[in-house]
From TrEMBL:
The keyword Calcium does not apply. This is DNA cytosine methyltransferase. GO terms for molecular function: methyltransferase activity. GO terms for biological process: methylation. Pfam families: DNA_methylase (PF00145). Keywords: Methyltransferase, Restriction system, Transferase. The keyword Isomerase does not apply. Transmembrane segments: none annotated.
């Protein structure tokens, strides 16, 4: 007891980066004029990097690096004998880590790789993963032995968390665990349908397997189930966060991963809520990717107006600052040559031959039809033939010269459901897994915050044909808001020279005028730079057909969906130290959501307070999680 706060001790096995620990430290219950909270004795894990980040997140120095493998488990998992300085952990080591006291609450979250449905069945049944799975039993045995042997008691409440597939893949292990807990006098609840998203009010569905064991001698009363909370959407969680890629406000984990160009294309084609299977429905022949530069590209400043800001990226083709000016000091008369940079057609009469020596001075150019693009290329180069059609003639050439290829239907790639999945902003997120790459899980989102002018009328800049009925006449006066235009055939006008002009990449540009756009001058260029190669990695913003940016979730956003705090105790944005981004995602995916741990800790503290007050029965609308077991009285039937 300290300042009217009654502390209940807690210890965590396989604590990872501290999702459970952070939640327990926020748990609180008020009962009988007292406030009940948890005091964390330790969090044990074999990974020193995870332990370092555990203390970074919780703000307490309670992580203990300890390998709970037995020797046979170590050999089976690593494939070799342990080093000479390695030894098996004993109950005394656990007792020392517990601070020489029996914790009131013991939480264990053993590794679940071998029990997860993401692992093929053959691997799951191997000796390596069976050794890993046995930590569910051996870790609990060590803790109970330490408490009974050195403390003369056992924890009042024990909780074990794992994946739901443990019900089938780990059935023999569960029998051992239940038998072990019964031996020490626990009433046990075993269920695989706990949605931590509903318990913690998260923005993701996270169905987990939980064992809750109540020591009947210490806690003879009910333990009630946490109140279910309404689920939140992904947008509710990540909407208030800094923009993706802002590593100053969001920390280093908020950078967008660099994906291959073809992966960005796939994400843009998958509708919100869909996955890779929707790519089969794409009408790819009628789609293309276009580049839309921001305001400022090729902008010509007015001589009589204040200039825009000068930025470090100023340049004629860029869009961040002023780059050109309409200079009135050089006047070009209307009698200038009309055939500058002119390209003549080969089937038309030539223009007058002058004494000019270059195309920019009047010397003519010709579109020569005798030069064809790769005239020697066969028409069947790189041709793909369908498996259900007749093949063309077989030649002796290579694939790039006419040899055919076939779309073989016998080999189909069977990806996991949700591969390349794009989640909807207004829906709860799917479970965050430790293998949360976009090729393996629904790790992307349809982000509506970057949209193509939402609310734009459909008739903006609409051009009507003179021979068709007019659209509805509205009260707007601006063509940008819906006022109509008409292609009037009454006025025949000849465009000026250079209208819709396309300039060559290797030529000097023509004069930039004050009305420089494609309708009034040579304001276009034949850009030879190719689109990114399929396997080129980077960050590109491709606006999908629904007007949103389909992008991968950042590691920081995944941590927020797991309800980790936005900032560490030292004030920095949430981050993990000493590991790669891929490893950080694994740590986050393996963690218990903090808010779910907090809510479960609240009901455990309430049960502890009721037991301490001697109130073993109470009326409640809440469902019972672990009720006292009814003892059957024998009766003589005659």
């Amino acid at each position: 007891m300290h300042q009217n706060v009654q502390y209940k001790t807690a210890a965590v096995l396989f604590g990872g980066i501290g999702g459970e620990s952070a939640g327990l430290l926020r748990s609180q219950a008020e009962y009988g004029g007292k406030v009940y909270r948890f005091k964390l004795l330790c969090s044990i894990d074999s990974d020193p990097v995870a332990c370092k980040n555990h203390d970074l997140i919780t703000g307490e120095q309670t992580a203990v690096v300890m390998d709970l493998f037995r020797r046979w488990q170590y050999v089976a998992w690593h494939g070799h004998e342990p080093p000479e300085d390695w030894r098996e952990v004993t109950p005394w080591d656990i007792w020392v880590a517990f601070g020489y006291q029996v914790p009131f609450f013991l939480f264990t979250s053993p590794p679940c790789k071998g029990l997860s449905g993401l692992l093929p069945n053959e691997k799951a049944e191997s000796d390596k993963y069976q050794a890993l799975n046995f930590l569910t039993v051996s870790g609990l045995e060590l803790a109970l032995q330490a408490c009974e042997e050195y403390g003369g008691s056992v924890p009042a409440i024990i909780q074990l968390e794992n994946v739901p597939r443990i019900n089938t893949r780990g059935k023999p292990l569960l029998k051992q665990i239940k038998k072990l807990l019964k031996k020490y006098g626990y009433a046990v609840s075993i269920r695989a349908d706990h949605n931590l998203g509903e318990i913690g009010g998260l923005g993701q569905n996270r169905v987990r397997f939980l064992i809750l064991a109540r020591h009947e001698a210490q806690i003879p009363n009910f333990v009630y189930y946490p109140e279910k909370k309404p689920m939140r959407t992904i947008g509710d969680i990540i909407g208030p966060l800094p923009a993706p890629g802002d590593t100053v406000a969001g920390g280093p984990l908020h950078r967008l991963p660099k994906l291959q160009w073809k992966t960005w294309m796939r994400l843009a084609l998958i509708p919100a809520g869909g996955d890779w299977r929707d790519l089969n429905k794409v009408d790819y022949e009628n789609l293309r990717v276009i580049h839309e530069p921001r305001r400022g590209a090729y902008e010509v400043a007015d001589w009589d107006e204040t200039s825009r800001a000068v930025t470090s990226t100023a340049g004629p083709g860029r869009s961040n600052g002023v780059t050109a000016v309409s200079d009135p000091r050089l006047q070009i008369g209307s009698d200038g040559k009309t055939n500058l940079l002119r390209v003549q057609s080969a089937d038309s009469p030539g223009v007058c031959v002058t004494g000019a020596t270059g195309p920019s001075q009047g010397a003519a150019c010709v579109s020569d039809p005798k030069l064809q693009e790769r005239a020697s290329r066969h028409p069947a180069a790189y041709r793909i033939v369908s498996a259900d059609e007749v093949a063309p003639c077989v030649t002796g050439t290579r694939l790039g010269s006419g040899a055919i290829a076939v779309a073989d239907p016998r080999v189909n790639t069977k990806l996991h459901p949700d591969s390349y999945g794009v989640q909807d902003w207004n829906e709860s997120a799917k479970t965050i897994r430790s293998a949360n790459r976009i090729m393996q899980a629904a790790g992307s989102i349809s982000d509506p915050r970057i949209a193509d002018r939402p609310g734009r009328y459909t008739d903006k800049f609409r051009m009507q044909a003179a021979g068709e009925p007019a659209g509805t006449v509205t009260g707007v006066t601006d063509v940008q808001s819906g006022a109509q235009l008409v292609a009037d055939p009454c006025i025949k006008s000849t465009p000026r020279a250079d209208t819709m002009g396309v300039q060559g990449w290797v030529q000097t540009a023509k004069t930039v005028t004050g009305s420089m756009d494609v309708h009034a001058g040579a304001a276009a260029v034949a850009d030879p730079r190719p689109a990114p190669a399929d396997n080129e990695s980077g960050v590109w913003m491709i606006i999908a057909q629904d007007g949103t940016w389909h992008r991968p979730l950042t590691t920081y956003e995944l941590a927020m969906l797991q309800s980790f705090p936005r900032h560490l105790p030292d004030g920095r944005p949430f981050q993990l130290e000493g590991c790669s981004d891929a490893k950080a995602r694994e740590y986050i995916g393996n963690a218990v959501p903090c808010k779910a741990a907090e809510q479960m800790g609240n009901v455990i503290l309430t049960a502890a307070a009721q037991a301490e007050a001697g109130e073993f029965f109470a009326l409640s609308w809440d469902p019972v999680w672990v009720a006292p077991e009814e003892k059957q009285q024998p009766a003589l039937i005659h």
